[in-house]
Specification:
The chain has 260 residues and is α/β, with parallel strands linked by helices. It has two domains: 3-160 and 216-256, Vaccinia Virus protein VP39 (Rossmann fold, 3-Layer(aba) Sandwich); 164-211, no CATH class. The chain is built from nine helices and eleven strands.
């Protein structure tokens, strides 16, 4: 078994066990708002005078296809890529039920490329920064850049280091989806990484998982984007385009691939 096969996010059993807890109902309720924000941001920056229907969009780390499906409903030609087969199967079934023409691909974001193809790429719901080596975060950004056509837009939503510091707690306990959930958090390497310890308890059975995420401030992520080649970078604190300041709910960053 190779190194990549042993990585925590390659564990299908983990995603099956933790899905009801990690993907709360609020994630489904906000889908329309998120899609509105994506389209408004992208069109303001690049596609204002183009018809939205037919724009080619990539939902990278698409999971169950929440955003993939919503963008497809709005007429975009959507491709969803994820490493978890069970999630992709659910996404395919939902798309078939709604008769949505979405291409779903099982692939690792570190290797997936479709050069000069997509008008829009999104990476959402804090799915960035979980690789063991930070160089692989850069590789992911490079793959995205290569997959965009000239003039295309990339939008990332992640956990900003500033927000992580502002809202940091050592742990929490709550009930969700029939589980008692216990979490513990630890800051590592001078605020470089956030370590997560999750324990689910149900019917006397405990399920534990530990993983960590590389944290980026807005300026650090912007630097990575610029070094990758992105230009005209915009930073927001929520999908309503509010500023990324002390009141920000999330870190959203947009970058544009230059014209050849």
């Amino acid at each position: 078994m190779g190194q990549k096969d042993r990585e925590w996010f390659n564990d299908e059993e983990f995603w099956g066990q933790f899905a009801p807890v990690m993907f709360a109902e609020t994630h489904w309720q906000e889908v329309s708002q998120v899609a509105d924000g994506i389209i408004e941001m992208a069109c303001q920056q690049a596609f204002e005078n183009q018809p939205k229907a037919g724009l080619k969009a990539l939902d990278l780390c698409c999971g169950f296809g929440r955003i993939s499906a919503e963008l497809a409903r709005r007429g975009l030609a959507v491709t969803g890529v994820d490493i978890t087969k069970s999630y992709l199967q659910t996404a395919k079934e939902e798309a078939a039920y709604e008769n949505l023409d979405i291409e779903y691909i099982h692939a690792d974001a570190r290797t997936f490329q479709r050069p000069d193809f997509f008008d829009l790429v999104v990476n959402l719901y804090i799915s960035f920064g979980y690789f063991e080596n930070q160089d692989e975060d850069i590789l992911l950004l490079q793959n995205i850049y290569k997959s965009l056509r000239p003039g295309g837009i990339f939008i990332i939503e992640t956990l900003g280091k500033e927000i992580a510091a502002r809202d940091f707690i050592k742990g929490d306990c709550f009930e969700r989806a029939g589980f008692n959930v216990f979490t513990e958090y630890e800051i590592l390497d001078s605020w470089t990484r956030l370590k997560n310890n999750w324990t689910l308890v149900k019917d006397g059975k405990k399920i534990k998982k530990t993983f960590s995420q590389h944290l980026y401030s807005a300026s650090e992520l912007q630097r990575l984007m610029l070094e990758t080649g992105f230009a005209e970078i915009k930073t927001y604190g929520d999908w309503d385009k509010s500023p990324y300041d002390h009141r920000a709910a999330k870190l959203i960053m947009l970058g544009k691939k230059g014209l050849k």
